[in-house]
Amino acid sequence: MKIISKKSLAKLRTEFPVGTRVKLVKMDDHYNTVLHPGEMGTVVFVDDIGTIHVKWDCGSALGVVYGEDVCQKE
Q1: Which alpha helices (H) appear in the chain, and where do they start and end?
Q2: Residue 65 and residue 1 in contact, taking contact as beta carbons nearer than 8 Å
Q3: I need a surface site. Which of 4, 9, 11, 46 has the fewest CB within 10 A?
């Protein structure tokens, strides 16, 4: 897990405010059996370690981990 700086965290929270629609690009989680690239969801919040918490349209609530996973705004 990568440590996020205060400056990067502020930028992430500005880029992904609550309600932002996102598309999953990559998730590196071998326990994930539900989410695949292209899944769409809505940002719920960004926590203090930079995880973007998303309510995915498929019903999952897995977070996008800073420095590991990738999502993009839609």
Answers
A1: 6-15
A2: yes
A3: 11
Helix, strand, coil % (nearest 5) of the chain?
15, 30, 55
- Give the Cα separation of 36 and 19 in Å (integer): 21
Strand order of the β-sheet with 40-46 is 52-56, 40-46, 21-26, 70-73
Contact 51, 59 (CB under 8 A): no
pTM above 0.90, yes or no: yes
**CA–CA separation, 15 and 31 (whole Å):** 27
Rounded CA gap, 68 and 50, in Å?
A: 11
The Cα 58–Cα 55 span in angstroms is 8
